[in-house]
Write a structure and sequence with these properties.
Blueprint lengths: L4 E2 L9 E5 L7 H16 L3 E8 L2 H5 L12 H10 L4 E6 L2 H4 L3 H13 L3 E5 L12 H11 L2 E5 L3 E2 L2 E2 L2 H11 L2 H8 L3 E8 L4 H4 L5 E5 L10 E9 L6 E8 L11 E6 L10 E11 L7 H16 L2
Parallel strand pairs: 1-4, 2-3, 2-5, 3-4, 5-6
Antiparallel strand pairs: 7-8, 9-10, 9-14, 10-13, 11-12, 11-14, 12-13
Helix pairs in contact: 5-6, 7-8
């Protein structure tokens, strides 16, 4: 997996085509910008770079409000961008002091002086920097002074919908619409977690589960319910089909903590202490309470068939 490069470690190279943004999710709305960066860099025999931020700027700027949940971790973002052909994802630590930097200072003192710029690709409505002063007109003004090219990309649609990270988050977190979210992302939504000990209730009814402690608490947890998923163990290449439950297991009324657990179909090995990665494929049903263990097991049998059929 490709690793992010932090600003303090980046090599200066004036022959660099770049774009700037959080690029959370690296979804279909982002991919034309990424494609253009890669394409332009190849034509110029230049380095292709995505400049991004960690933590997400809204975590620092929107203090006191609900923390934003992420579609991708920094490492996931770097890997996806690398697969799409980007040479380097440069990460700038986003701090309160950094947020006070003007857009002009950001372009001149960081992009031009520390990274290097020969081409700048920007989305049609993208604004960045303090008070979102970094507009296309400012980028074009500075391009004339510092002699780099600017390429503006129009809105990208899936069907008739303009895709955004906010839209994808809503489909996952509020609606649980996995199939539409996956379509907008251009790949299945992914969660990874450490397998920890649970109460072993599933084992007693023939459905042992791996209880996951999510490795990055900032990641979006899809809406409560049962999902068909593909499962990888310790990032091994082998993929298993699984059925995942997210919720409070209302059949057992003493549960007060959110449970994220996956039953791996036809799998019997010990998973404690391993990292399990799940790719969400389809929402099977809402979480609901059952009259007893027998009714729950009957439903799980049907869920298993549904998951295998995806």
């Amino acid at each position: 997996m490709a690793s992010p490069v932090f600003l303090s470690d980046v090599k200066y190279d004036t022959n660099t085509v770049l774009t700037v943004g959080t690029y959370d999710g690296v979804h279909e709305g982002h991919k034309e910008i990424i494609r253009r960066v890669v394409e332009t860099a190849k034509k110029k025999n230049a380095r292709s770079v995505v400049v991004t931020f960690d933590p997400h700027p809204r975590e620092i700027i929107n203090t006191g409000k609900d923390k934003i949940k992420l579609l991708t971790t920094i490492d996931e973002r770097a890997h996806i961008l690398n697969v799409l052909g980007i040479d380097e994802m440069v990460v700038i630590p986003f701090t309160r002091d950094f947020s006070l930097l003007s857009s002009r200072e950001f372009i001149e003192d960081i992009l031009i002086k520390k990274i290097g710029v020969s081409g700048f690709v920007i989305g049609y409505d993208h604004q960045f920097g303090r008070n979102r002063e970094g507009t296309i007109s400012l980028v074009r003004e500075l391009a004339g002074i510092h002699h780099f090219e600017v390429d503006v990309i129009e809105a990208q649609e899936v069907g008739t919908i303009t895709v955004s990270s906010t839209l994808v988050r809503k489909e996952l977190e509020v609606k649980g619409n996995i199939e539409l979210a996956d379509k907008y992302l251009g790949r299945p939504y992914r969660l990874s977690g450490l397998v920890v000990h649970g109460d072993k209730r599933g084992r007693k009814i023939g459905y042992p589960t791996a209880n996951l402690k999510i490795t990055d608490v900032r990641k979006i947890i899809p809406k409560y319910g049962v999902y068909a998923v593909d499962v990888q163990i310790d990032r091994n290449s082998k993929i298993y089909r699984g059925m995942m439950n997210i919720g409070y297991r209302p059949t057992f009324t003493d549960d007060t903590e959110l449970s994220i657990e996956v039953h791996i179909i036809d799998f019997q090995e010990d998973l404690y202490g391993k990292i399990v990665t799940v790719d969400f494929l389809k929402r099977i049903r809402d979480e609901r309470s059952f009259s007893g263990i027998d009714a729950l097991k009957t439903q799980l049998d049907m869920d298993r068939i549904s998951c295998l059929g995806v």
